[in-house]
Amino acid sequence: MQNNIIVRGIGGFYDVLTRDAKVIRCKLRGRLRLTMDRVLVGDWVEVTPLNDEEGVIEEILPRKNELVRPAIANVDQAVVVLACSDPKPDWLFLDRLLVLIEANGLEPVICFNKSDLIDEIEGYLDIIEIYRAAGYPVVITSAAAGEGIEELRTLLKDRVSTFAGPSGVGKSSLLNKIESGLELAVGAISAKLRRGKHTTRQVELIQLSFGGLVADTPGFSQLSLTGIKPQELQQYFPEFYEASFDCKFRGCMHVKEPDCAVTELVNSGKISKLRYQNYLTLLEEIEQMR
Ligand code: GDP
Ligand code: ZN
User: Fold this and answer.
1) Phi, psi (rounded to 5 degrees) for 34
2) Which ligand is nearest to the CA of 258?
3) Fold of the CATH domain 67-215
C-alpha cells in the first residue's frame, strides 16, 4: 500500500497499517483531537512511531472519497454481489448500485454468485454478457463449490475494497472462502479488542494475506440517488455515454429527443432494453427529487 491506513478505531485509539506492513496502535496528536469525529477507517495518515507497537497520528491526508453507513474513506472499489437464485437478481437494484458506486468515485466489480445452481445461472448468462460488454469487470463465483475464487482474489489484490449487495447473496461466504481462516483471524482481533473498552462496533478493514484490504461490513446500504444531477446519470451507463456523442442535441437525455443515437441503438438491439429501462426509471426518480 502507498500510504499508512487506519484499519480500525477503538476507544480513541486507531490501528494503523503502515507502509512497511505492520499494524501499530496509535493515538491522535493533541492538536488533531478536535477533529477526532472526522477520523475515519480508511484514512491515510502520517505517523510517528513510538516503538514497534505504538505511534502517534500526526496528520490526516486528504481523502479520495468517503462513504457513509458504514463510514469509511479511500475505498478503491466496490464488489457488487448478486446471486442467480435465493434471492433472484434484481437488475434495477444492480444498476442503481453501479451508479452510486461510480458517483462516489469508486470502481465497480460485479460478482455473480451461486453459480453451482446450474439451471438458474444458465438463464442469466445473456444478461451477464450485457454487463461485460458495457465494460464492467464481471466474475462468476460459487462460494459453495469454490469456483471463481481465485479470479476474485486477483481483483481484490493490493486494493481497498468493500462488498455490496442484498443480504443472502453470499457476501460473507465469499469473504470466508477468499481468505481461509478469516473467521479465526477476525475472532482473534476482536478478542484482543474486547480487553479494551466496550464501544459500538465500527467498520474494520481486514488485511488479506495475498495483499489488499477489505471492509468487514458491506457498503452502500444508503441507496438514494441524492446529489446526482439528471444530466450526469448517463455517465454511469458507460455504453450510453459513448454513443451520446452521436446524438443530434448537446445535452441529449436520450428520452424523447429526435435523432438520438442511444435510442437508435436500443431499437436496433445494440444497447440492452433492460439497461435503458433502468436508466429511464432512475432518471425519473432523480427528476422527481428535484
Ligand atoms: P450475505 O448475507 O450476502 O453475507 O450471504 P451469506 O454469505 O450469509 O449467505 C447466504 C446463504 O447463501 C447461506 O445459506 C449460504 O450458505 C448460501 N450461499 C452462499 N454462497 C453460496 C453459493 O455459492 N452457492 C449456494 N448454493 N449457496 C450459497
Ligand atoms: Zn440521445
Assistant:
1) -60, -30
2) 2
3) Rossmann fold (3.40.50)
